[in-house]
Amino acid sequence: MKKIIAALLALTLVLGMAACSVSTGGGKTEITLWTYPIGSWGDQATVDGLIASFNEKYPDISVTVEYLTYADGDDKVNTAIEGGSAPDIIMEGPERLVTNWGAKGVMVDLSDLWTDEVKADTYASVEAACKLNGKYYEYPVCMTAHCMAINKTVFEAAGAMQYIDAENHTWTTENFIKAVEAVYAHTGKTVGAVFCAGQGGDQGTRALVNNLYGGTYTNADYTAYTWSSAENIQALELLNGMDGIAFDASLAGGDEANEFAKGNLAMAFCWNGATHANNLETIGDTFEVLPMAFPSKNGNDVQLCGGIWGFGVFNNGDDAKVEAAKTFIKFMADENTKASVEASGFWSTRKSVTGLYAGDELKEVYGSFMQYMGNYYNVVPGWAAQRTEWWNMLQDIGEGGDIPTLVAQYEANANAHAGK
Question: Most distant CA pair in the chain: distance in Å?
């Protein structure tokens, strides 16, 4: 009898412990997602909807979200890493996930997610950007090609549309010069601004300078900066000497886009589909926006800068959380792909994902720019630090400094950050 009572007590204790375990954790693996404002991935209602779809299939994984800004997001993440409280998942681009935190050894290698099927369906430039030294630190979801835009209404009034291939949204360097001259003669005010108040939107000034005469920003293996090439010097001297083009140290990229949207500039160098959507209310019915590729020597050999965004997983020493994080990012990138991409407002990194924004003529125009995507050179060592050198260089050029001397000086500074 005593043995039976003892057995019942033991069983009661085990069941009680199990019940306690379920009540405290709910039987769920709890993970955290920190996301930068990548389109509506910075909007709580949108992300709540995406997570609800995930929990319909995976109810035992609870996802808590924190929304970062670009103003202080990096500081928050770095502080969390140093304090041992990094999120389980983070959403951003390769320059942070791969060549920053991945290079520091705090990210999980996601090579097991990169199956042969995934590799075959992913653009080669995207795959290359997601890995470092043979390890994959990012699982990509969406991408965009940054472009420029013109005020078509003003260009028409100035007789400058003759210099535009409006069907293909391209133009030659020669015709770019002629168009700026025509618009400046018509309006008598600044046509376009080489903004340089800070690093914001610097993909626009980089693409402008590099495309005009076929220069490059880095070498082919992404180990050094190549600003001082003859082609880049020629482009900077052209821009600095043009009536209608101003080197403006009061504007960063977002400011320049806003000035364009208000009609104060006739062209914007910091632009893409999301920028257009964000400025629709400001633009209203005041003028028609024509998205454009950057000008190049023959109008066709355009190399646009791009954005790539996806997920990385921090190594917090908990295998269960790592596996739950991988389950989440595979769901968002592989199963819920269309909704995940559309939430960003951009385009898929998967070749097989088509039909996004069908019937939206303007979206389809921005999607057509993917054909001009250049290599994702943002993975060069010292990327974050060199951005300061770039806008400081543009400021000094705008103040009248000797261009070849300045470019050589700031290129050397940038390469010092890259360890070259």
Answer: 106
Radius of gyration (C-alpha) of the chain in whole angstroms: 25
Amino acid making up residue 218: T
pLDDT, tens only, 279-317: 999 999 999 999 999 999 999 999 999 999 999 999 999
Task: Give how far the C-alpha of residue 326 lies from the chain's centroid of Cα atoms, to the nearest Å.
Answer: 22
Residue pair 267/148 in contact by the 8 Å Cβ criterion:
yes
Question: What is the pTM (predicted TM-score) of this model?
Answer: 0.80
Q: Do domains 28-144+307-372 and 147-303+381-417 have the same CATH topology?
A: yes
- Can you read off the two tokens belonging to residue 58? 């995976």
Task: Report the distance separating Cα 2 and Cα 312, nearest Å.
Answer: 57
**28-144+307-372 — its CATH code?**
3.40.190.10
Q: How far, in Å, CA of 141 to CA of 39, rounded?
A: 12
DSSP character at residue 380: S
CA distance 129 to 307: 11
Residue range 147-303+381-417 forms a domain whose CATH class is: alpha beta
Tell me the C-alpha distance between 173 and 294, whole Å. Answer: 9
First vs last C-alpha separation in the chain: 82
What six digits make up the tokens of 195? 């903004």
Question: What sign does the CA torsion over 270, 295, 375, 329 have?
Answer: positive
- Reported for 47-50, long-range contacts at CB under 8 A and 24+ positions apart, including other chains, are 47/343, 50/332, 50/336, 50/339, 50/340, 50/343
Q: What is the pLDDT of residues 148-200, one digit of tens each?
A: 999 999 999 999 999 999 999 999 999 999 999 999 999 999 999 999 999 99
- SS3 category, 29: strand
Long-range contact list for 79-82, CB < 8 A, 24+ apart?
81/106, 81/314
